[in-house]
Amino acid sequence: MLLQIYVAMKAMPWYTLLPAVSEYMIEHGWTKCYSTLDHFNWFLCFLYIALYLVLVEFMIYWVHKELHDIKFLYKHLHATHHMYNKQNTLSPFAGLAFHPLDGILQAIPHVIALFIVPIHLITHLSLLFLEGIWTASIHDCIHGNIWPIMGAGYHTIHHTTYKHNYGHYTIWMDWMFGSLMVPLAEKDSFKEKEK
């Protein structure tokens, strides 16, 4: 766990570069991010949040999958995070223990989405804050078993098999692209429901 904390703390200053750059782009009006409520519409607000989350989920799935499939990227970037590959070596600190460039690559979808989907600045900042909490929670090995959430049970499988459960917030992308592996406890509950 101390190594996880060390790796996370060493990378943390680099992680701050992407939000700083995205803030600069937002302040200069280069994105679709807005800060006023002049033309506020609740329906569109929730629609845009949903579109933003689907887009981010899709992009993070593919970035994460390519970090595994492209051997150079895995060896030089993502392997740092996958040193923690057993349930007893995972902790919330492992969720932040990335090579700096790996962490930035997996966060870039949040910035790309700002150029595509109109979203309020406070919503964007809140989602970035929640991102840190989410990343820690899927590495804590406490599986909440709430469908379709990509909980720690799914992500622990990812850390032990390396070829399943690349999704971020949900299991939908893994289900759509055939990389989903359900935790054993859930498989058992699905079998009970079928009986």
From TrEMBL:
According to its UniProt record, where is this protein mainly located?
membrane
Tagged with keyword Transmembrane helix: yes
Q: Which residue range or ranges hold the Fatty acid hydroxylase domain?
A: 50-179
GO molecular function terms attached to this record: iron ion binding; oxidoreductase activity
Subcellular localization is given as: Membrane
Which sequence ranges are marked TM in the entry? 40-63, 111-130
Task: Give the source's domain of life in one word.
Answer: Eukaryota
A single Gene Ontology CC annotation of this entry is:
membrane
Keyword list (alphabetical) reads: Membrane, Transmembrane, Transmembrane helix
* GO terms, biological process: lipid biosynthetic process
Mind telling me which Pfam families this protein's record contains?
FA_hydroxylase
What the record says about family reads:
Belongs to the sterol desaturase family.
Q: What's the protein called, per UniProt?
A: Fatty acid hydroxylase superfamily protein
